[in-house]
Design brief:
Aminopeptidase, six-stranded mixed sheet, 6 strands, 33% helix
Amino acid sequence: MTELGEAAVTKLLSTFACNRNADVENFLKHPGKAIRFEQTDNARTYLILDADNGDILAYFSVSFKELVLEGAKISKNKVRQLDGISKHAERIRAFLIGQIGKNSAIADNPLSLASILDEIYAVVSEARALVGGRIIILECEDCQELIDLYKRHGFTLIDIEGNSGTLLRTMYTHVTEHRKV
């Protein structure tokens, strides 16, 4: 952003569209939302650009979140795997994929979810090398099609008691499963 300036970045972000999820689109297009998160160090947003013309093909934002396990229907062994230390952990620090979106305004956009996730895993691997960390979480709409999509890409749903009626579901994957060699 410092290279282009805020006005140029805002103009570039306004070209993004996501016809499947208004929240994903609005995060970039809403005046200052992605930029504000960046400037306040609450998240980092990464643009995946077309090398030929500079169009935004996709984007993602990464941050940290504490995963609260209260009410989670997971075994003590799974808690130990997630935490790395204790089977009694109630909270686990995690990398958060806050937003992930593919630009639907690009005809025949060549990016797949797998290639976007590869970019995310590369960023998280760098952060992990500096500060540690064991898991990546994302929160998605409570939509079986979306949950199944993320499951096919290695994420596991965390079942939480009394979660019916909740609009978002939490899923996780282990950072080490995606480490670049």
